[in-house]
Records
---
Amino acid sequence: MPERWGIKTTSDDGYINLHSDYSSMVYYAEMLQNTNSVRPVYTGDNYVPISETQKTTFYDMGWVVQFKLTNINTEFLLPFYLPAFSGQQIGILDVIRKDATTWLVNLIYSGNETNTPRVFAFAPLNAMPRPVMEGRWGLNVFDQNNRLVFTDNKQPLRVDDVLLITHPSTIKTGARGTCGNSKSCHINFTSDQTATYTGTATNSSTKLYHIVPSAYGGLAYKDSDSGRGDCGLLELGRYEYAWVYQSWASFRGTVGHIWGTRNHTVDWLSDFAGGYHQFKKGSCGLSGILGFILGGLLTLVTLGAGLVFLVGGALVGFALAGVDSVPSLKAYDADETIDTNTASNLIITDLKYYNISEEIETEFEPYPPGPVPLEYVYSNTFEETPVYWSFRRFRPENSTLPFFGTLEIYAVYPATETTPSTTGMVRIEDFSSDNTIESVTFQGVTYYRGNFVDESLINVYDPVTNVFIGIDYTAYYELGIIGTP
Amino acid sequence: MPDYGLEINGFSFNYGVYSVIEKGVLSGVTTITKEAHPDIRLWQVFFVPVGVRDINARELRPTSSESTVQNAGETYNIITLVPPSVGTTSYLYFILGR
């Protein structure tokens, strides 16, 4: 055994558990939901309408959502998820370092929109600033380069199981039906190819999982026809026609974990789907224009930077964090799977090891989802004690000046065991005119803007001359709060 | 509760805790020699893509493998990390061990 310094412990199974040459991977914090959960579909030219029910029954769509963690200064991050129910199919799509202190995770999940998983961030201790992590008492361990590698203020990653996962090489082999000259027809793209892996640890409602599946792909259908139709007895000759129908479902590899068993099922969920249909018809009596009709039919749309708009704004919430944080989408024109041969490691731990609560600690529906300890209630009567976020702006009539705005946050802090309830208004001067702010931290409390509730437009008159001078506009939103005053 | 071992602040070190043996941004073929870490007997490799994965570019994931090499009469066990052959997404790698 080479001469070493520092501290080293060995577990009862003979493996190293703590070694001052190596950093712990520690639990840092829970990531917060940053967007609504969406199921984007193509809504560009000649699109085939897809209802919410059809997204499930025909296109096997999962919900795409983004999580965010701020105030973490690390170049390395390992996200873990907690499923909302046994067997829930989940796939981490992207892990994005937005800036020096902000990370984003795009994720897809099965079930209902409200079955949002929870996401937790783990990071190497020696990759974070020491003053943030080092405890003031207890045990702190440093490596030979004076980097903190263990502190008893942060629980290190304790692993229950690790296993390699690969996805099937195909998404669907069963019948899927056909479509023709119709704008209301749908192909059944529901995946039917799965696999099961058995590990050594039993899954439960408290297990956390990390895996970024490598496999993705798509299913597609296309048909077209052209010909001549009869114009009928009263019209001379025939008409020429042509039509094209095309639809697709893009898929990502997912993994589900069956509680009470050691089984993990690999499956597929669609992250983007769509279809388009076009029919063109020539005039009666005219011939020789079929080529013109066929040339005018829409070809498959190549989605790129404009995809945010082609999916009807469903991904706008993601784009607010930056266009470079929007999940990549693809419209397939043929069946294919990619990267199914590359195995990914699934690592399992348990939230109990890190004192993470199994329940989101709030009595009320939180916004954004996560540990919101305070109540939020909006009332526009103002006779009750309101809790709201309002953006107010005023511009004099005929003024060329931009709007100026005032952010007013009015909150009620509920009673605790030792303190009575308190109320207060926080006013934050904001001189932007477009009200794009979604959260603000003021005196250690972070306020989040929720759903729009109401607005008011008040004409303002000079109190002396009674001359109309401008419009006072106020928008009211639900409010979520993290932190206490 | 066992009568031996190390427990700190309620956390017992009798259970499987992985340490970060190596980490980095995968920028080329990268090799880790296990013999450079003689206390480590279990090894796991994790790749984390950083950034939006471009599925339109048919991006692939990195791969890892293990092999043995002979050098000056000594046998060395090598973990080799290979960047993807297709795609530009940056990947972090974690070599966790215990």
Note: The CA atoms of residues 318 and 326 of chain A lie 5 Å apart.
---
Amino acid sequence: MITMIRIYDGSMSLNETQERCELDQAGGQQLKEIKSAILDLKSVNQQVKVNYAGYEEKFQGLLTQLSFDPVSPSKPGGWTKLFDCSMYVEGQLTPISVFAK
Amino acid sequence: MLESRPGLGTDMETKNSSSRAVFTHAAAAILLVCVCLVDTPSVRAQNKPPILSDSDISAFSKAEIQRLKALADDVTKPESAKLARNKLIAIGVEQVDAAFNDYRKKSRKRHDLLQFLFDFLEIGASSAINIINGSERAREVIAEGLSLFQGSRAAFNRDFRFLERQILFDKMVAKRSQKLKAIYDKVNLEVDSYPWEQARSELREYFYAGTIDEAVSSLSVDTGAEASASLTALEKAKKDAGVKGKVTDDQKRIDKEIDPRFKALMDSQNLARIKTDYALIQKDPILEPIVRGLPDNQGLGLTPEGKKRLEDSLTAISKGTAAFIDYNRVFLYLRLAVMDMLGDGDPKPAAAFINVLK
């Protein structure tokens, strides 16, 4: 069950988003899903592209390293596929596979 | 051959002379319209009232200005020096205003006349293409000439900022008003605090505020400042909404310090040890309020399930019934909270957390 949802700036690069997810899950939260969205910032009358990242508590056996790649069914080298998603990468909606080990 | 067809040359000459006549009549009519336009009130400037005639007033009398300067320099008579200085300021303002208004009037006339001439030439060339009864080559030449003229007009407008004239003048008026207010705010100061030399320097700035260069420079600065302010407002709005950006170098560095210590503690599954560390957190003036506020920390992004689990763990800890996993949970979210605060520019909570973990 998702216990934490973090909002990430959709203008970040793929690598920057991956680093952010690795930092936020460190210590006991496994990245579970990423969903793209448009956030309405009423105070400045602007809309920004964001990614909502859902995490689930996992105190044992956390897969700490993440790899965000173009969509593929698997990745060699001991990587476990977590999920596929469509997320904002530098402002563009991009299909991504998320692996972890 | 033309010679074997006697009527052809005569027809051509007749058609050309008709076209010329049309052109001549059209030019005369347009010239008449121009003369009428020039005489309309909206084109002519207003007449100056006699009291403001340049030749009569002291603002343009060198002898009077010299006399006032001598009085303004006489510090033995502060009251008359102050009065003389203020009169000189008023004279300076009047001279600068006269120069500015004269420049603005001439600029407006020149601008309007040039725009009319450009429009007239464009319309004339466009019409000539249709009116002319000559060869295809003649039409092509006129069409090319028209394209050349239109391109040159666009370059002229851009390079000489012709179309931005009104914006620049508005900027000049605004800057002049600012400078003048700054001068008038000081007219009650004594001459030892605000001598004539300083006032003259500020009058010079007042004059420059009414120049094109100053207006262009000011426009660039203002536009840049507005863009910067907009970006700052956007970043603040994102931060207030909990939008996280890329991991900072400080966060990477501190995480490298925290991670092995945190991992060692959690891997130990040592309840006594983690209780001791938690007791240190409770005594720390920086960390204790952060822990207390964790369930309501919007920036963490806790879901209702996540918040409930955290609250239950904190309750169990306070009652002394907590298991290792409860302490693990609190430490996990405390770590995230101090890293968020580090990202916002506050390194103290992270430093305090590292101290506890040592």
Note: Chain B touches chain A at residues 230, 233-234, 237-238, 240-247, 251-252, 255, 259, 262, 266, 300-303, 305-306, 309, 325, 328-329, 331-332, 335-336, 339 (CB under 8 Å).
